[in-house]
Amino acid sequence: MTKVGFVGLGIMGGPMASNLLDAGFEVIGYDLVPAALERLSEAGGKPAASAGQAAAEADIVITMLPNHPHVEAAALGEGGVLDSAKPGTLYIDMSSIRPETARRLAEVGAQRGIRVLDAPVSGGEKGAIDGVLSIMVGGAAEDFAAAQPVFAPLGRTVVHVGPAGAGQTVKAANQLVVGGTYALVAEAIVLMEASGLDASLGLDVLAGGLAGSRILELKRGSMVAREFQPGFRIDLHHKDMGIIVDAARDAGVSLPVGNLVAALIAAARAQGYGSLDHSALLKVAENLSGAAA
Ligand code: NAD
User: Fold this and answer.
1) Catalytic residue IDs
2) Mind listing the pLDDT tens digit for each residue in 162-184?
3) Which DSSP helix (H) or strand (E) runs through 286?
4) Closest ligand 1 atom, residue 67 Cα
5) Is the dihedral of CA 146, 149, 153, 158 positive or negative?
6) Using CA atoms, how far apart are residues 92 and 64, in angstroms rounded to an integer?
């Protein structure tokens, strides 16, 4: 039985660890929050006392943490994942973080004989629960091949997109499209409702035509009902928009729509919606038109 060390058992990491357990992996997990460790025990996993302990006992280590400072603390710090893992261990960071940290993890890993992949995901909490995430992977081809058994219970579309850091750049592109789509669906709802129309009926038609998307499919009902329980928090999408803006600067390109979406998500945060789902961009669209319910 392959042992997986799993660090970060939140909205995404919790169900991902459960799916690995269901697939027959032994999982030793760590999170700062005791309740997350209790959920892991209930699902059949073993709680660890630190990220380093989870890594030391494992053949494969996964981190699923909010942002690069958390990954750096768990992976690069003294007694962290790269300090504690055995040479030959495969370390897969599945968090969405800046590409330069992913490249740094790969460099430090290589110095210690640890194989490192960046493998951020898309598909949200539901995709994590159902084990159907899209996984975009950066790193060496042979390490990607070695990781297939652990990706299989987590994702459906799993693609090797390039060298270390490439997975994170593709994830940034993903978040650009997701943020922009939410912003436009929010404006469509504001327009239809202000015109005296039933936005649910309107979105049903949109979902079946060229404007259709996975976001319309999964989220139109909760958006019209103003249910903004996360899901994916505005705070995390704000972090991702920062990664996108920096990546665009590094690549020497201009992303005007992306910058506008970044400003709308920053407004959502400034208006106090940081812990709501990113579909709460609807609240910003309403506030701009004085249409808030
Ligand atoms: P979350 O906040 O629910 O979970 C993160 C977990 O990490 C928390 O339980 C927290 O206690 C733990 N943690 C933080 N620092 C730690 C440390 N140093 N050691 C151990 N545990 C630590 O976040 P999430 O929604 O699960 O997102 C995780 C990552 O996945 C983020 O990078 C996010 O952008 C990305 N992501 C999220 C979604 C989504 O829909 N929620 C979708 C795709 C990608």
Assistant:
1) 171
2) 999 999 999 999 999 999 999 99
3) helix 281-288
4) 32
5) positive
6) 9
In the reported structure, the alpha carbon of residue 166 is separated from the centroid of ligand 1 by a whole-number distance in angstroms of 20
Tokens of 141: 């081809």
Q: Estimate the crossing angle of helix 256-270 against helix 166-194, to 10 degrees.
A: 70
Q: Is the pTM of this model over 0.70?
A: yes
Q: Is 98 in the pocket of ligand 1 (CB under 6 A)?
A: no
H or E segment at 91?
Answer: strand 90-93
- Candidate from 81, 94, 218, 236 with most ligand 1 atoms within 8 A of CB, to mutate: 236
Closest CA relative to residue 137, chosen from 154, 115, 121: 121
Q: What are phi and psi of 177, to 5 degrees?
A: -70, -40
DSSP state letters, 209-261: STT--HHHHHHHHHHHTT----SSBHHHHHHHHHHHHHHHHHHT---HHHHHH
> Do residues 98 and 104 lie in contact, with contact meaning Cβ atoms separated by under 8 Å?
no
Q: How far apart are the first and last CA of the chain?
A: 54
The string over 61-90, giving b where at least 16 C-beta atoms fall within 10 Å of a residue's C-beta and e elsewhere, is: bbbbbbbbebbbebbbeeebbbbbbeeebb
* pLDDT per residue as tens digits for the range 35-58: 999 999 999 999 999 999 999 999
* C-alpha separations of 150 from 66, 120, 131, 165 in Å: 21, 14, 11, 20
